[in-house]
Amino acid sequence: MAATTNDSASKFDLSRAGEYELQSRIALAGYDACHELSACMLSAHLGTQGAANVLVVGAGGPAQEITKAGLLQPDWRFTAVDPSEPMLEIARARVAGAGMAERTQLILGRVEDLPDGPAFDAATLVGVLHHLPGSEPKRGILQAISSRLKPGAPLILAGNHRAYASEPLMLKAWGERWRMQGATADEVKAKLGRILQGADPPHSEAAVFALLSDSGFEAPQRFFSSLFWGAWIAFRAGRPN
Hints:
Blueprint: H1 6-9, H2 14-27, H3 31-46, E1 52-57, H4 64-72, E2 76-82, H5 85-97, E3 104-108, E4 122-126, H6 135-146, E5 154-160, H7 168-180, H8 185-198, H9 205-214, E6 217-226, E7 229-236
Parallel strand pairs: 1-2, 1-4, 2-3, 4-5
Antiparallel strand pairs: 5-7, 6-7
Protein name: tRNA (Cmo5U34)-methyltransferase
Pfam families: Methyltransf_12
Domain Methyltransferase type: 59-154
């Protein structure tokens, strides 16, 4: 659940990679529930077909996208790509610890570096989009994923949406979440300042849906929400009847 461009990946150095999971669990109330439901949504859609090849974009860190879905579906195989080497090493250890190393290929790089073609039965992009500045990089990564999915294949997309400063009550509640976990008032102020300066989420759910539509996806449906965070399933255009 890390960034996927070279500039964004630089934020996920060894220091940040080491604290990523703890910070993510505080920042996202319902961290485990979101990953579990993401796996359940994929399994509900693909489970009857048996084996499946799943593309996990921004896979570095705890690798929950792999370990949760892999627990439900022992015949699934995963191709996981991330441009941050420290984050990918954490994912490698987690995948091995879950006994899923033999069915997971971990690649240091970007999804655009993968071979073209509709090779995958499903994909996930979790915690990535809001790290990419502007609409074009967001659209670019979604298009790169779309071009590598089979028609009708599902995408799990999850991340922050809404302009943070436009929702002052939610932003304040987010700060209270940090304070609830022991952060001081000054620490909360610093954290929110970094968030406001260092992330660029889509400004609405409608903007998320527009990005998906422009990138070859259809029928998006939200299945999880937590303050600014949302999680959706959408499908590569050309769904089979």
